[in-house]
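Deviations from the work plan: none for this task. Representative record:
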Amino acid sequence: MPRVFVSSVINAPAAKVWERVRDFNALPRWHPRIRESRIENGEPSDKIGCVRAFSLQNGDQLREKLLGLSDYDMFCTYAILESPMPLTNYIANLRLTPITDGDRTFAEWTAEFDCEDEAADDLVNGIGGNVFQGGFDALKRHFGG
Amino acid sequence: MVKIVKSTILEAPVEAVWAVLRDFNGHDQWHTVVADSQIERGQPSDKIGCVRRFHLADGAELREQLLMLSDIDMAFSYCLLDTPIPLLNYVAHVRLIPVTDGDMTFWHWESRFDTPPGREAELEKQVGEDIYEGGFRAVRDFMGLSSPSHGGGA
């Protein structure tokens, strides 16, 4: 089972970063690759089980389901229901931890999924680079470092 | 019950930091408050259950027992057995996580303990600042790393 792990340091208190990323429907506001997003069936975006349907800047459409959300531990877990990527059983976790030394944020984004062996490297690199590191880069820019 | 959480970023690969921290008997090499340390009964320092007996610079003797050590998770846990400092039911956890964006290390150090009534704040400060934050500085010095650049991140 391929695994993606990307982590970064964001120069802002964890509560501030969490405020920006906790909304499961807020990807277009903070992630440059996401064009638009909506929660299906008019559900609140912090209702466990809600589904976000969103599109990338390149037009790709995805649907993802919220599996877990914790304001106390500052993490969010979700699964892909539909995507153009050749993978199945995709589950990802985005987690923030305070760095007490300097009041900054340690951000981790992990994913596991199944796919054909030949496709694994491209998927791991694409998800890790474009989606996860791309998101962290955007947060670092937003928070000035 | 007091809970302490301290964390920092070291500008070194996680494997290099783990190589320093995983030796349960190595803290007298880097921590400025530890004068000397030995593992009791001649046991290896990565044997779960081993006890390190060490002295602080002021002569105080402490005994701590290794409860968990994991190379795959780069983590270990330990508890205090004997101490002249009134830290009761003290259990601590150390964990390293790689920062892939910049090849650095996130170091997380936390503990819980009880104290005699009224001494919570004093002991929280002593452990959090002298032992944990002092330990961060000491490992930075030991490894020849620069101080954290709070304005920079990665």
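Strands of chain B lie at 2-10, 34-39, 51-56, 61-70, 75-82, 88-99, 104-114.
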